[in-house]
Amino acid sequence: MEGNTPSQKTLWYFAYGANMSPAILTTQRKVKPFRQSVAKIPDYILEFDVPGVPYNEPALAGLRRIDGTQTSDSNYPPVHGMAYEISNDDFLKIIATEGAGVAYKTLRTKALLAEAGGEARGKLEVHTLVARRPMSTIRKPSARYLALLVSAARGNGLPMEYQAFLSGHAVFEPANSSLRYRCGKFIFNLIWMRVQFLVQRGIIKLRGENGLVPFWFLILFQVLVTTMWIHHDYFHARLWGRGDGL
C-alpha cells in the first residue's frame, strides 16, 4: 500500500478491468489514488457479461457472485484486481467515464487486501462496478481488451495464477477473413457504430453531478442494446458470420 495522506473524504474503489491500468485510470480518467493495494473479492469471479458491440468489442468485464449453482464456478479463481483509495469526487468521475450508469451499477462488498504476489493482510469495504443488465449469453472479449487486462495485472504484480487465468481466457476472433465476412462487419458497423456515437454524445450531455444519466436514457439505451444483439444473433450473423466469437 502506498500514496499520500488524503485531505478529503475518501472511499476504496476496486478495479478489475481496464481501470487496473495506470494509463487508463490516472492518465485517461484523471483519477489520482491516495493509496493502492493488490486485492481480491473471494465471493465473485470475473465474467465478461457487460454487452459491447459485435465485431469490435463484443463483451466487457463484469463480476458474477459465486453462488454454487453453476458447476463452472469451481473452474474460475476469485476475481483479483487493485483497490484504490480515492476521493468521492474521483469515484463519481469513474462512474461518469464508465458509461454514466448505462452499462454498470455500483456494488459495495468486502475485499481482501494483499501484498504483490497474493499474501493476504487485511479486509475492507470496497466500491466497484458490475453489469447493470448482465448478458444471458456470455460473449468473448476482444484480444485488444483482454491484452489490456493481462498487461495491467502483470504491471501491478497480481498473483501469477491469476495472470495465467487471464492470459488463457478465450478471445473473440473473426469467423474467417472472407470478403463476405468483412462486408458484413462493415455493414453492421455502418449502422451500429453510428448509434454508439450518438449514445456516447447523449451520455456526455445528459449525465448529472452524480455521474449518472436520467432514468429514461437508461431505458432507451437498453432498448438499443437489446435491438442490436437481436439484429446480430437472429439476422446479421446468419448472413455474414458471427461477431462475438461463439
Automatic annotation (TrEMBL):
Keyword tRNA-binding appears in the UniProt entry: no
EC numbers: 4.3.2.9
Keywords (A to Z) from UniProt: Lyase, Membrane, Transmembrane, Transmembrane helix
Protein's UniProt keywords contain Membrane: yes
Record: residues binding substrate: 145
Active site: 98 (proton acceptor)
Transmembrane regions listed in the UniProt entry: 211-230
GO molecular function annotations of the record: gamma-glutamylcyclotransferase activity
Enzyme type, top EC level: lyase
UniProt name for this protein: gamma-glutamylcyclotransferase
